[in-house]
Every structure is written in structure tokens, then in C-alpha cells.
Amino acid sequence: MATSISEVTRAVEALLANPPPVEDRKDGEAEHLFDAMERLRVTLEKPEQTVNRIIFSCRTLPIIKIAQGMGIFDAFADVGLNHPLTLGQLDEQTKGDRTMLTRILRLLITEKVITKSNDEYTLAPFAYQFRNDTVSGEVVKHFHAITAIQSPNYLKARDYMSPDDAFDAPHQFANNTKNHYFHWLADDEERQRPFNATMSLPRHDDHNQWFDIYPVRERLNDESHVFVDLGGGSGHDIARLKTKFPDLPGRLVLQDLPAVVRGVSLPNGIEINPHNMFDPQPIKDARAYYMRTVLHDWPDKQALEVLSRVREAMGKDSILLINENVLSESGADDTPVVAHTDFTMMLNFSSRERTESEWIELLQKADLKLIKVWRPRVTIKSRALFEAMRVD
Ligand SMILES: C[S@@+](CC[C@H](N)C(=O)[O-])C[C@H]1O[C@@H](n2cnc3c(N)ncnc32)[C@H](O)[C@@H]1O
């Protein structure tokens, strides 16, 4: 067993020279190693090294955005995977001057995005995703680091009290706007498009879809049944439902704000209904009103308003399905993604992720009766489908 630093280094170098293909890895094995390596790093680093790493980490995203804007990733993509480029070739194909290019390349090397050998630069395979015409490239554009960077000033001015007003969040403070985050997105196609792309990205639990655990055929079994995907974005989720159950009877309807559903094209059989969920619900007595990661964007006050609009439209056989992120009750058992999503909810919306008991409490406040909490078969603790009906 490797117990000295040099032995561990040799073992890691051997793994790097011959990494096992993804399909040969056991479930969770790589994640376990990452966790151990991160803990090892913090243990072995001198305190000033750890502090420097933390301080500089907030610059990684802006550096990637600059490189993306200059066309550095596009230049590598144009010549193909693993094809090296010289400084002169990169200079010819990118925006900006050579001083800027050299400076950004130096930073990208320290970020392990690029390697340099024999005066040639090679892009790491993962970084091809940052080129301009990819969905993951759009995701980089979607993340507005300025809101996180300004949040200490926002919170200091409010004595570190949790924000609860969606119109007075760190987002308004940092971006100098009075607009709610979603209206601010809709005001500019360059913001709305990357947001939609981000929402359409596969998620870590996509192999565990809600309709794989929920009795869809049992619940949606009549021509009169309507399934409404409220706040469904560009329809990726409802499209997956249609693909899985192409012959489901009844109607499938996608609802979202007009700016979001404008121009969206979906498989035959899915209707598009532009709708603001704070207005009265136009589809009454649907069999199912479904919301995936919609309510987590709203503090309780507005989440309850949305639930009231749904409740008013629900008939005695209507079902409400809330597919949501769920925080651990202990506060010590969350993945970084879930903990950061909670922070993002605060930054953009003054909202938060909720624990299972907080979701149930919200349903009770909205006068809705919980039928069942559906959990994915493989234990993904951070996700649940709450099924509820009207209390009459
Ligand atoms: C976090 S996204 C989730 C999108 C989709 N359900 C999914 O899981 O990928 C929240 C969605 O709520 C929509 N939304 C926000 N405000 C809305 C409103 N007032 N009426 C309808 N939809 C709204 C947004 O446009 C966005 O598509």
C-alpha cells in the first residue's frame, strides 16, 4: 500500500498514464478517490497554499469566459481533438493582441486547461466543451460570477440576514437592476439563450427519471387526461416523457413564460401554452400539474402564490407533482452541487433549496395533501417527487 507522498505520487502518475475507461469504473469509485484527493491536498498543503488556491479560485470562470470570447477554444476545435497549435497559429485565429493571448494561455496552463510542450499548446479534451457553438459553452456564458462576488457586500449591508424578497436579492444588487432575475434574462437574448441551454443539460440523476419510478401509465390512462409541465423551460423534460411513453392517452402541454417557449420546437403531440404561472391557470382540472425545479426558484411567499394558482385550477382527481432538489435534514450530507445550488437560489432569487420536511410544510401551508414522496430507486438523496392533491 502506498503510504509515502512519493509512493502515492507514483501511483497517481501510473493511473494518469493509463486511465481506466468510464465504462470500466465501479459506481462511485472515482468520486471516492476525488474526495480522498481533495482531503489529502488540504492536509498536505501549507496554509498559505490553501489560502492562495481559495482566493484565486473565483477567477477561473472569468478566465475561461475571456478565453471563450477571444475564440481560443474555437481555434483548437477547428483543427481537431489533441491537435497542438503554436502561439503564432493561435494569434492568427483569435481576437486580441499577442500580450493578452500569452497572459491568458499562462493562466489556462495553471488551470490545467492547456498544456505546453516544445513551444506548442494542447487543449485538454474536457475544454473543447467551452467552444462557442456547444451547449456546455453556453453554460459558461450563463454563469454570472458577478452576483456571487458582490454577495458579501449585499449581505454585510443587511447584517447577514437571509434574504426573502425575490425583487431584492443579490442579483438586483450586483446587476444594478430592479427586474426579477427571470425578467432580466428575458430582456436579453444573450442571457435567455444560455439559461435555456443550461436547463436542458443532462443532470447527474438523469438515469433516474421521475417517470421511471412513478406509475405514469396508471395515472395517465384516459383520453381526457391532461398533463401540464408548468415552468417546463424549452420542453426537454416533457419531450423525454413523450419519448418514453409515445402512446400515452390524453394531452401533454408545456407551459412557461412567452420569451422562453417562443420558437421552441418539440416532438409531435406536445402542445405549447405560453403562460405566467402567477396568473390564473388556463387549464382547469388537468389530471396532472407537474413542476420540476420551478418552486425552488421562489421564496415561500411567491411559491405559495404559484401553488394557489395551481390549487384553484385543480379538480378533485387532479394531481400535483413537484420534482425537486432536497437538502439533507442534517446539513452535513449534501453534495457540493446541491449546496451550491442552494447558494445560487439565494443569489438569484432570495430563495433556497428545501429539506423534505420543508417541502411537506410548504404543501401543507398551500392547503394541499401529500399523497406520497417518491424517491429514486438508486439512492439519490438529493432528489424527490412529491405527489399531492387538493384538500377539500
Ligand atoms: C429552474 S428552471 C426549470 C426548468 C425545467 N422545469 C427544468 O427542470 O429543466 C425554472 C423555470 O421556471 C420558469 N418560470 C419562471 N417564472 C415563471 C413564470 N412566472 N411563469 C412560468 N414559468 C416561469 C423559467 O422560465 C424556467 O424555465
TrEMBL record:
InterPro entries, sorted? COMT-like, COMT_C, SAM-dependent_MTases_sf, WH-like_DNA-bd_sf, WH_DNA-bd_sf
The active-site annotation reads 296 (proton acceptor)
Gene Ontology molecular-function annotations:
O-methyltransferase activity
Which keywords accompany this UniProt record? Methyltransferase, S-adenosyl-L-methionine, Transferase
Kinase among the record's keywords? no
Query: In what residue span(s) does the O-methyltransferase C-terminal domain sit?
Result: 225-366
From the UniProt record, give one GO term of the biological process aspect: methylation
Pfam family for this entry, one: Methyltransf_2
The UniProt entry, under Gene3D superfamilies, shows:
Vaccinia Virus protein VP39, Winged helix-like DNA-binding domain superfamily/Winged helix DNA-binding domain
Q: What is the designated name of this protein?
A: O-methyltransferase C-terminal domain-containing protein
